[in-house]
Amino acid sequence: MTPDQQALFDLNILINTAENQGDGGFLQSVLAPRLAFLRANRVTVDEQGLLATVAAGGSRTIAVINPIRVFGDRAVVECVVTTGGKKYHNVRLFVRLAGCWRLLGWANEEWVPAKYVAYPSGP
């Protein structure tokens, strides 16, 4: 793994931890100046919409799908988050701003293995 890939891997683990702990402050600190977040229910929200629902007590687990793709100062991270007995495929777009990776876009949907030809067995 390259240093950028490792940093992004670690950041995604920390995002998951912050969601479980209800740490909206940490989440806010890793967001780009604007965020678009597509929820699994197909509703798109911004930073305020995301942070308004962050609450402690979650039991999400995360599996980052490799490879993490880095394109200079842009990167795409895919992961599967399991919560409430369901799995959700997440695609996260990061940009490097002032030397730090920031989350610019985030979209998720329920994991349906048949839809993910590249990952037939799941994470």
Task: Explain the overall architecture.
The model has no long low-confidence stretch (mean pLDDT 92). A hairpin with a 2-residue loop joins strand 4 (74-83) and strand 5 (86-97). Helix content is 24%, strand content 44%. It has 3 helices and 6 strands, in the order H-H-E-E-H-E-E-E-E. Strands 2-1-6-5-4-3 form a 6-stranded mixed sheet. The chain has 123 residues and is α+β, with helices and mostly antiparallel strands.
| Rg result | 14 Å
Structural class: alpha+beta
Distance between the termini: 18 Å
Low-confidence stretches: none
Mean pLDDT: 92
Largest sheet: 6 strands, mixed
Assembly type: single chain
Note the topology.
Blueprint: H1 3-21, H2 24-29, E1 31-38, E2 44-45, H3 47-51, E3 61-71, E4 74-83, E5 86-97, E6 100-110
Parallel strand pairs: 1-6
Antiparallel strand pairs: 1-2, 3-4, 4-5, 5-6
In short:
The chain is α+β, with helices and mostly antiparallel strands. The protein has helices at residues 3-21, 24-29, 47-51; strands spanning 31-38, 44-45, 61-71, 74-83, 86-97, 100-110. It is built from 3 helices and 6 strands.
